Structure formats: structure tokens, C-alpha cells
Amino acid sequence: QLSTFYPGGVKKADSFLVIPMSIIPGALDIRNSDGSLMALICTSMPSSMRSTLFSSLKSAFDGLDIFKNRTVTSISEESQDPQAEANEPFSCTHFSHWNRYGLSGHTAPQGVHPHDLEAAGGRRTNLRQTLPYASKETFTHQQLYLNIQANLGEISRHLPDEYKVLVKLVDILPNAEGSPVRPFLSLVVNINVCTVAHRDAKDFELCLVLAVGEFTGGGLVMREQGLVAELRNGDFALFRSGETTHFNLDYLGRRASLVMHTDGGFKTWEQDRNGWKDHSHFTYL
Fold it and tell me: Using an 8 Å Cβ cutoff, are 179 and 97 in contact?
């Protein structure tokens, strides 16, 4: 069906192709007409890892009963009461490395230490953001972060060549440890989530969505591509989140998603270390 789904290289208006994971023997690599990656859907997580994925995620919350069992009745109640969904438990935790708010050194005078600089007009300057930095949640929920990342090590070996551009950014992080979700720099943990249609315009290149839980439904929709990936527990999809309007369908059961991405602000860090590369006080960069 994929071979005829894009006549002339363009999707038909309002047409979608549902892809059940049972027909994918490992991975489905879908390319654009120019050879670039459209989407990679992977089902080859080892059974030993897949079978413990949800229980490991639950245990990472140290006994907190955070997962809601979504049923037909609860969905019906939400549709009748606009406030019902707002009152349901939801968690979105960002374990991220950021550079989008980095302090630029492009106009900083040479020979003056950054701590002695003042912004024009006496505006406050956050000097700690001359370098990429980790999100606050990375520290406040550090044990949760460590518990989750232990289950992600196998994923990178399934990624196509496009992921190498992400590895390059990880390798130039200003710390020895790099990223624990390599080749990405950020991990978002979504619990009990049905996302609205959106693009992540500030993501760099690729985004990976890993479904976790005991559920039916919840398919990942990629609107421009016309694809619906019916991800199961342990399946993941890789796509260009800044160019793709995406969301997940409603589901029954208990569901989470682990989203890995890289802040697009790291492009300026790659280019010239936010303008500090040739500054006398940053020669080690």
C-alpha cells in the first residue's frame, strides 16, 4: 500500500494509512522522494526488555500510583464534563539539556570576563547560561531520570544513519558524561497523555516516541505523511517533529510515552559555541 499511497510523490488529501505493528518484521524505514528520512517505525525491542518496560517505568516512580486506567466509561464522562479531563492525573516531566536561551557572546568585548559584563540598559544577565545547561527537573527528579534511562540503551542501535548528526551534538557537550539518552539530549516522560495536534518547531532534526504501557489504541498520527503508527508497548517511531504535525489517538488502558529529542538551539553551540568560541576566557571550548 505504501508504494501507491503517494502518487507523484504527494499524499492524497485527507487520506491516512494505518500501519499495524504486527506486519513489521523489525523495522519499517520510509523515505521521502529525495531519499531523506520520512519515518522509521521499529518493533524489534528484545522481548526480555519489552516485557519489563512498563513495570520498570512504574517502579521508577517509587510506588506512586500515577497511571490512570482509561476506560470507555471514563472517556464518556470526560466528553460530558469539560472539567473531568482537567482533573485527571497527568505528568509531563522534561529531563533536558537546553541551549535555546543561551547567552550570546557574539558582541562581547574580548578580554572581559563574562562575570564582569552587563547587558545594555542594565538588564539582568544570566551568566550561568553561557554554556548549555540541564533542566531543573533533571535534578529535582534525578532518581526517576536514572531509573528510566537504564531501559533505553538498546534503542540507539536500531536508528538509521540520520541519527549521526545528533551524535555530533552529544559529543560536543561541555561535560565528560555526555547525554544518558544518547544520541538525543533530552527525554520527556508523558503519563496518561492524549496529545493535541502540534509541531515541535524548536526540535533539532529528529524526535523519537516510545510507547509504554498496557493499552489498546493510542496510535501515533503523522498528518502530513498520512501515517498512523499503532505503536504497542516497546515500539517506537522516529520522525522529523519540527516539520510534522503529530498527535496520538485516544486509548484504553494505562499508557505513557517516552519522547527523546534535541533542542534546536544547539545549532548555535555547534557553530561557534554561542559566540564564545574565540573569546579569551573560553579557549578550552
Answer: yes
